[in-house]
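Structural biology now treats backbone shape like a language. To illustrate, our science desk offers a sequence and the tokens encoding its fold:
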Amino acid sequence: PWRGRVSLQDLEVGTRPAAAGAPWLRAATIDLSIDIVSLWRRQLTVSALATDVQLDATVPATTGDGPALFPLPDSFEAGPLRIGIGRVGVKGGDIVIRTADGDMTLGLSGPVVTARPAAGDLDVSGRIETLRVAALGRREQLTQVALEGRLSADVITVRQLAWRWQGEALRLAGEVRQPWTAEPEAALRLD
């Protein structure tokens, strides 16, 4: 296929410090890759890579069965064009996500993560240099996190989740059924 590229430099969304509930995002670069799949059928595929991402966000409390994200579309219509969704990635930076009630905060440093839609689900893979978790009055830090899995409406499949914690290497695999409900069921193996 033919390929075009667009690069956005020093993109910033929101103000810092972020207002309550409003995210702040900064990316040094967002590279968009546009592949012309078919001129005749007017089909494109768009992929994106955000570099050196700084994100500070507060997520609202969830109710009911959680997010209605799935099934994810593999493409969408924009006028006469059919635009396919390719790979979306983040490379480097610092991300902080907290719950609105302040009960949990996640911090990620040095992510190199890629996601792509696959048959209505979301395949995710990559690594994170440092993952900080603050919850239930405790603070923990995981390093050298490697992940590979698939998110869907009714199950999260963890093919691999490996990390170092307090000098020990740990690994987790398995699945979480009904992950977006108040009562998820986990079948995970810790090595």
In short: The mean pLDDT is 89.
